[in-house]
Write a structure and sequence with these properties.
heterodimer; A: 255 residues; mainly alpha; 83% helix; globular; B: 234 residues; alpha/beta; Rossmann fold; 2 domains; six-stranded mixed beta sheet
Chain lengths: 255, 234
């Protein structure tokens, strides 16, 4: 019932915004050449889907986004666990990581293109690079603040360091890791859009930019909506996965 | 086999330049129940942590490797079910034996139906029972309890005391318990160590025969012993 109410209010608020937008367009209160009405945007999405391009753009972006996010996340989580639990590694790695963290990933995109070309590799690399840091910082925080009682209990109950690492430290850091992952999902979509502006021939970001250049505002808004819906969908799927595999995590307290 | 489970000689603990415990020595016999009492900040928990090997200390501490420890705030692994918490320390068992042992412990702590629940689904008293169950699951020789009932309300605490009396009489293991409550110390312990000014100032032999029930709390002798303990603390 609670879940149904949540969906009900979400649909209601989105429907309200669309209706408001349609009314503004209907009464010519906004310039329809710049912001076409929802009906026109809807028709543009249908036309885009029928041509088969929507599927290609969607799947290309999903592939780039998810691959980049997963690679970045694995690296970020591993770094966070290492620096959070090992003082020597913390002293060696943290200053270096802090230097890289200070660079805006968007500003580094031309550097990545110079090194790796305009193909998919540079796009995936830039997404990975940008998603490493939120996960590193959050995982480091979680791993370094595991309550001493947990570690002490575990050390009395088991002599295996590997068991304590996988069964105590990682689960006890999970709230922070998940918080970092959700930030990284949002950042990966920003980087996906930016990376597809340069040297791409398909993808949702590419469609937004090429439609804008062709002055197809209906298609541009359509592509933006699809990109936004994709990001929300991934966040939703992620929440379901977390609920299933980590039932103790209180998602509502994270974000 | 030695007569003593724990032998401590000239134990001192300091945090930096701040001394918490100074030159403490004692022996604890097998299957003896010791209560450590003292005002806040007298180093009761520090002494227990030193016995468990959690903190660095000076002096000799001879204690078995097989220790069960129960923290003040239960410290259950909240990502594991009750059964998984209890089974965590059962390292050298196959799955069938492990399941059997966990079920035995669940029965012992009166939570047999709660094996698949998570700690957040339990009450304070139930969580403390799981923490004790986890601590005794692998048959430790010594059980260290750090104010295990201090976070519970007075009714639950009394219930837990009854339950602990029964459990300890079945297990016959050495127990060292830190507590603020004189009633708890007098009902449960064989001897009481009074911690004062960084040292054990007095060792009191509890004058009540075992097995005990909480009914002794309403006797004149109990009130007298409690008053004497209170005087020793002040």
């Amino acid at each position: 019932m609670k879940e149904f109410k949540k969906i009900y209010y979400s649909v209601l608020s989105i429907a309200g915004i669309i209706l408001f937008w349609q009314v503004l367009s209907g009464f010519d209160l906004i310039n329809s050449n710049l912001i076409p009405p929802p009906t026109k945007v809807y028709l543009a999405i249908i036309e885009w889907a029928k041509s088969g391009e929507l599927f290609i753009d969607f799947s290309t972006s999903i592939w780039r986004g998810i691959t980049g996010l997963l690679i970045g996340s694995i690296i970020g989580i591993m770094l966070g666990l290492f620096t959070g639990r090992n003082q020597t590694l913390d002293k060696i790695l943290t200053p270096v990581l802090n230097v890289f963290k200070a660079f805006p990933p968007v500003a580094l995109l031309p550097v990545f293109i110079t090194f790796f070309g305009i193909g998919d590799f540079s796009k995936v690399f830039s997404i990975s690079f940008a998603t490493i840091f939120p996960l590193w910082v959050n995982t480091h925080l979680g791993a370094s603040t595991v309550p001493a009682e947990f570690i002490r209990s575990a050390m009395l109950l088991s002599k295996s360091g590997v068991k304590i690492f996988f069964k105590i430290i990682i689960p006890a850091s999970m709230n922070s890791i998940i918080a970092g992952f959700r930030i990284s999902i949002a950042i990966s979509f920003i980087m996906l859009y930016v990376s597809e502006l340069a040297g791409a021939s398909s993808g949702l970001g590419y469609q937004i930019s090429s439609s804008h250049l062709a002055y197809r505002m209906d298609k541009m808004l359509g592509a933006l909506i699809v990109l936004g819906l994709t990001a929300s969908m991934i966040d939703l799927i992620f929440n379901k996965i977390v609920k299933y595999f980590f039932p103790w995590v209180q998602l509502n307290k994270i974000i | 086999m030695s007569e003593y489970s724990i032998s401590v000689k000239n134990l001192s603990v300091a945090y930096g330049s701040f001394s918490v415990i100074e030159d403490v020595s004692f022996d604890i016999r097998n299957a003896e129940f010791i209560a450590i009492i003292g005002k806040s900040g007298t180093g009761k928990t520090t002494l227990l942590n030193a016995l468990a090997g959690f903190i660095k200390c000076n002096g000799d501490v001879n204690i078995t490797d097989c220790i069960g420890f129960c923290f003040q705030n239960h410290s259950l692994f909240y990502w594991m079910t009750v059964a998984e918490n209890i089974g965590f320390g059962l390292n050298n068992m196959n799955n069938t034996d492990k399941k059997h042992t966990v079920n035995e412990i669940l029965k012992k702590i009166d939570l047999f139906e709660y094996g698949n629940k998570y700690p957040k689904e339990l009450s304070g008293g139930q969580m403390q029972r799981v923490a004790l169950g986890r601590a005794i699951a692998y048959n430790p020789d010594v059980l260290l309890l750090d104010e295990p009932f201090s976070s519970l309300d007075i009714f639950t605490r009394d219930q837990m005391m009854d339950w602990l009396i029964k459990l300890i009489s079945e297990l016959k293991i050495t127990v060292v318990m830190v507590t603020h409550y004189l009633d708890e110390a007098l009902v449960l312990a064989d001897r009481i160590f009074v911690l004062k000014e960084k040292r054990i100032s007095n060792v009191v032999n509890v004058p009540f025969a075992k097995p005990r029930t909480q009914a002794i709390r309403y006797t004149e002798q109990f009130q007298k012993s409690k008053q004497e303990l209170s005087d020793l603390l002040n």
